[in-house]
Amino acid sequence: MTPSSLHPLLLPDLVADLPVAVRLQRLQRLVGSLRAHFGCGAVALLKLDGDHLRPVAMAGLASDALGRRFRLADHPRLQAIVRQRGVTCFHHDSPLPDPYDGLIPGHPGAPVPVHDCMGMALDVEGERWGVVTLDSLQVGAFDAQARRDLGELACAIEAAVRVTRLEAEIRALRVSNGAARAATGAPREESELLGQSVAITQLLRELDGVADAELPVLLLGETGVGKELCAHRLHRLSRRAGKPLVHVNCAALPESLAESELFGHARGAFSGAVSERPGRFEAADGGTLFLDEVGELPLAIQAKLLRTLQNGEIQRLGADQPRRVNVRVIAATNRCLRAHVRDGTFRADLYHRLSVYPLQIAPLRERGNDVLLLAGRFLELNRARLGLRSLRLSGDAEDALRRYRWPGNVRELEHVISRAALKAVIRGADRRQIVTLEPGMLDLDGADGLAPPAATDQQTRTSDAPPATLQQRVESCQRQAIRQALDAHHGNWAASARQLGLNASNLHKLARRVGLKA
Questions:
Q1: What is the pTM of this model?
Q2: Which of 11, 70, 118, 460 would give a disulfide with 89, using CB separation of 3.0 to 4.6 Å?
Q3: At 413, is the pLDDT very low, low, confident or very high (cuts 50, 70, 90)?
Q4: Contacts of 87 (CB under 8 A, 6+ apart)
Q5: CA 450, chain centre distance (Å)
């Protein structure tokens, strides 16, 4: 296949009006075609975001590589490629470490370092967009002809990137109606939601759709799933992006100070109030107020919060006159507020005001291979923090991450990777070599996080037999089907639900009814 023969392969993708998921696949197909043409071990397309390169599409690299962020100061090869025009080549004897050392899978034994590498900076609309990199485990893989071929393909690669970017900008204009600049700008590290699962893709679509709608949003989900990241994204993509986003942890507010903290107080309102003080609502005027763990607010404060949501007015503690505020409220909780409404600990009218648009955030155990993308992010952060040449997971460690139930979700995963990396260093790992984390370093043997082992046919027959009635026989078959689906999808409930033709929430209800969940 010649370089010119690759161009027609890209044309259908460049002119088609494709769905979002397929647009991302365009770039994935592009790197796959480049890998096949050059016969190399791996190809990566990385976008420049400030001082980092963010992978957009990869072929031939470990599953966690797409979640990594490569800081230019830590990777001299990538830094050289970004700064130079044309094709940059690094041969096997280059003293500069390769950012993908140990990340090309499929080689038994010790991880293999990359031997040859070449790359090229990509420009879109006259600005440096990012880079494309090619890596090989073979010495001398990238000769003069290979470098010429890559140079000839520059226009086709940049065209694919340009079309994908234009589609993203058009979609942002349709969705946000004025917040396109925020949507198309480089995502900040602390506000980026990472994942490719159906659950996270749907969540991002809903967040982008409701971001500029000015409606109150209630974020629901377990501890550690990323509710704060969702709140940041909603604010960043809204027309209020240039105004403050004020975060209030309702669980940390003492009841005696909660009113003053939220609404402010006048001078002399209570002992020690020697001057006037604005509250969090006034601090967020024109912007967004994020009420985290809103279910923890005492009932007395709930009544005043409801009044503010209804008429847009606050009254400082000890003051006579109300004040107008223009604030969008985003609330979050890991509790079932409906249950609290039923037992009288949360006001029904406030619940309905806050939950104009409720968003359920899936736990990590229902996000499939997103766990490896997130692990890649944390591996790269710890590699840089500890000064390691390369930090990777073994195949068995990847399997262990997939099987684990993650009761603490993304926050727990971050702590697991950080602890394992530190253990490896403490135990004497050579920082100049490729450091591989094995399952034993992850400490994932807690009983609360283990995925239930798949039952054998004999165990199923023993635990379910003898079914005396038709209903018991039906439930026995349902249990077995659910177990088999969970086993096939490594405990991923969302994927299992799709296989079984059920809605995910209905599958959870069915599992509880037949005794597979508490």
A1: 0.73
A2: 118
A3: very high
A4: 118, 119, 120, 147, 150, 151
A5: 22
